[in-house]
Amino acid sequence: TTRIPAVLLQPLGHLSGVVSTFAAWGEQCRPSAGACLRRPFHSIYTPLPMGRTNHRPDLNGLLVVDKPLRTTSAGICSLVRKRTRGAKVGHAGTLAPLATGVLLICLGKAATLVERLMTGAKRYTARVDLAHTSVTDDLESTPIPADVESPPERGAIERVLAERFTGEIDQIPPAHSAVHVDGMRAYELARQGVEVDIPVKRVVVHGASVLRYDYPDLELDLRTGRGFYVRSLARDLGLALRVGGMLSGLRRTEVGPFTERDARTPDDLGDEIGAEHLVPIDEVIARLDGFSDAR
Predict the structure, then answer these.
(1) pLDDT tens track for 192-243
(2) Cα 133 to Cα 174: distance, rounded to the nearest angstrom
(3) How far apart are CA 91 and CA 222, in angstroms?
(4) Buried b / exposed e across 105-125, counting CB within 10 Å, b at 16+?
(5) Residues with Cβ < 8 Å from 104, sequence gap 6 or more?
(6) Which pLDDT tens digit goes with each residue over 130-174?
(7) Count of alpha carbons within 13 Å of 118, Cβ hemisphere only?
(8) Are 46 and 29 spatial neighbours (Cβ–Cβ below 8 Å)?
(9) pTM above 0.85, yes or no
(10) DSSP string, 115-182
(11) Are the beta carbons of 174 and 229 closer than 8 angstroms?
């Protein structure tokens, strides 16, 4: 029999490895049947994330950022990674582009605290427009005038907040949200014009009070648990009052024990971020231990 030279077998061995890799990749990225019908190939079979090298193992702690308007949480992480010259970075809870305020960035070994940070209570100052609605329940889409017979009194708003939007409540996330539906994000389906049946979530509101009211502008102080959508509250409050309801502004003032007083804007941080900008891990743990969501 003819023997094939070993040198000619090397490409075949390499191809075998490639095939095995793609087979394993396919098993881990297998989508639902519904997702296959609606998503292009490149969006279904996204390569598994590669580990990012930590070039700054000396940086371990929490960075409290005051996120500016129209920046993304991922964008802030990229900025921090650049200004630390390659530190391992991740955020503990997304803040929407149209929201400002407290965004917690974990560096290095502080990544082990992400889950605990995310489960803590959040506090928001929310502005609600009671004269309009929108497809996205905020200013990401064009406001639509609502048919309002009579503007509600402040007392009526406060009663509805106390009776229907305090404690454990059922909430339906916005159609334009990151909730997973049939293997896709809800907003992906909504942008395709697909009607989405989003399941009800059980969420917690520790407190909801009126800060200022001059119809149609309503400003609220909200203390909420994890997974709460302020846009949904704006929408549902309007429905309960039989007026419009959409979020016109949002600022996150607290995440657990960390407040806007702890936060620095990207401009305040300067071009280089170092250990002096971080809350040490021991202090983060101590502050979490001493914090109560129900305060």
Answers:
(1) 776 777 889 999 999 999 999 999 999 999 999 999 999 999 999 999 999 9
(2) 12
(3) 22
(4) bbbbebeebeeebbebbbbbb
(5) 62, 63, 64, 65, 91, 92, 93, 117, 255, 258
(6) 999 999 999 999 999 999 999 999 999 999 999 999 999 999 988
(7) 15
(8) yes
(9) no
(10) HHHHTS-EEEEEEEETTEE-TTSSTTS--EE---SSPPPHHHHHHHHHHHSSEEEEEPPPSSSS-EET
(11) yes
Instruction: Work out whether the CA dihedral 143, 147, 150, 153 comes out positive or negative.
Output: negative
C-alpha to C-alpha distance for 222 and 234, rounded to whole angstroms: 11
Amino acid type, 287: R
Tokens of 74: 């991922």
Residue type, 279: V
| Tokens encoding 44 | 């279904």
Joined tokens for residue 12: 């075949």
